[in-house]
Amino acid sequence: MNWQPIVEQIENATGSAFKLLNVRPLAGGDINSAYCLQGAGKSYFVKINRAETIAMFAAEAAGLTELAATRTVRIPALVAYGQSAEHAFLVLEYIEFGTANKNSDRLFGQQLALLHRQPQSFFGWHRNNTIGSTPQPNDKNDDWITFWRTQRVQHQLRLAAAKGYRGRLETLGPKLCEMLGHFFEGYRPHPALLHGDLWGGNVSTDGQGNPVIFDPACYYGDREADLAMTELFGGFSPDFYTAYRDTYSLDPGYTTRKKLYNLYHILNHLNLFGSGYLRQAEMMMDSLLAEVR
Ligand code: ADP
The organism sits in which domain of life (predicted)? Predict the structure, then answer.
């Protein structure tokens, strides 16, 4: 691996010399290769992928910048992103993750609620991005139900059909899309800046126990979608949910809608990781349809 183009980009972005002393591979990423670039007294976090994936890193950089501008949850600072002959790369502040303290979860609940309380003016985003490595369309829309139907559920169903997942998925999908309005009776979501991929693997704490979130798939959407994903693979601690609700209370219909929101991620897992997620997706759709029959 030739690190020179990345070192040059770091030097251009920071305006100071960076002598690379050591490169340490980091575990944990699903999609990209991640490294800690160590210099004298300064380290950087770097993600690498094929050169064609530059738009993915450009969108991630835009998301990190917008999240950081809310000054709510700690976000690794963007240093640079770019392309060499063989690779696309994203360079961020390296954060030495530490262990959570007794306040970390509560703080995260408050900070996420404050992020979600900042008003946005439309659903969607100013650019498309990716969820995992799946393209995620974010066309602007003033109507959340239309957005969720077309840009989220139908989009993943189309990708699934193209991969050959037909059968029940193909009959349940359109039925669910037709019934979407029923899940929103008496509830009007407001657009909020979402992290968009908020599972436990994208949340940590810094050395002082402050929450840190990274690897976003940002858009403006119903905040319940972010919260739902925190419950999808294990769930966060009760302190987190209590602090979130104390800061920004939740509508009772969230309990049902969270399944609708997590269906998007399960369909995405089906498309990314294969048929192991098919049964789960079908069961979620069955149970959602049973709620509105
Ligand atoms: P991927 O896009 O491949 O899923 P991630 O952005 O999740 O990659 O990063 C991979 C791993 O690197 C994470 O699980 C986390 O442990 C670590 N990591 C992410 N960002 C930073 C950072 N700014 N500083 C230090 N470690 C980080």
Answer: Bacteria
Residues 19 and 71 in one domain: yes
Q: What average pLDDT does this structure show over 102-106?
A: 96
Q: What pLDDT does 30 receive?
A: 76
- pLDDT for the residue 31: 85
Tell me if residue 197 is catalytic. yes
The residue range of the domain holding 20 is 4-93
Q: Say if ligand 1 is within 6 A of residue 25 CB.
A: no
Tell how far the Cα of 115 is from the centroid of ligand 1, in angstroms: 21
26 and 166 belong to one structural domain = no
Considering the domain architecture, whether residues 49 and 106 belong to the same structural domain is answered as no
Q: Please state, rounded to an integer, the average pLDDT across all residues of the chain.
A: 96
Residues 6 or more apart in contact with residue 211 via CB below 8 angstroms: 73, 74, 104, 107, 108, 111, 203, 204, 205
pLDDT in tens, 155-176: 999 999 999 999 999 999 999 9
Which of 62, 93, 124 is at the close of a domain? 93
> Given 197, 215, 222, 226, which residue is catalytic?
197
Is pLDDT of 293 > 90? no
Contacts of residue 42, Cβ cutoff 8 Å, sequence gap at least 6: 18
Whether 158 and 52 map to the same domain: the answer is no
Residues 6+ apart with CB under 8 A from 241: 109
Taking the whole predicted model, whether its pTM rises above 0.95 is answered as yes
pLDDT value at residue 277: 97
pLDDT tens-place string over residues 59-87: 999 999 999 999 999 999 999 999 998 99
The domain tally of the chain equals 2
Is there an atom of ligand 1 within 6 Å of 291 CB? no
Q: What is the CATH number of the domain that holds 170?
A: 3.90.1200.10
Find the DSSP H helices in the chain: 4-14, 54-69, 104-117, 144-147, 155-162, 168-179, 223-230, 238-247, 254-273, 278-292
